[in-house]
Known about the structure:
Layout: E1 4-6, E2 10-12, E3 22-27, E4 34-41, E5 45-50, E6 59-64, H1 65-69, E7 73-78, E8 85-87
Antiparallel strand pairs: 1-2, 3-4, 3-7, 4-5, 5-6, 7-8
Amino acid sequence: MELITKSDAPTINAEAIQKGDLIxxxxxxxxxxxxxxxxxxxxxxxxxxxQPNIRNVTNFFSIMAxxxxxxxxxxxxxxxxETVHMFxxxxxPEEPGxxxxxxxxxxxxxxxxxGDIGTEE
Length: 121
């Protein structure tokens, strides 16, 4: 299920992510991801509550629909800790093809290969 729906302007799909979901998000300017819980979802914003490493402090950050569509956010979320959704969706890796056989080199007599020993006449 897509997180963003695009009509005239990008909007957040409230069926894909809901209040209470656990979320891990990284904004392009941040050094690290932040873990939190979805506090609210609207057409334009996902509001996330998170706790920094400061005692008794709670913060919010907002993930805006237009920033998601522009690729400024990487988001993973889960409603049940078993199913994890990702945005942007990673591309499927290409299936490995048949490996190319090693290139055969032809060595003449006395040049090595197959244990040939040069003969003198």
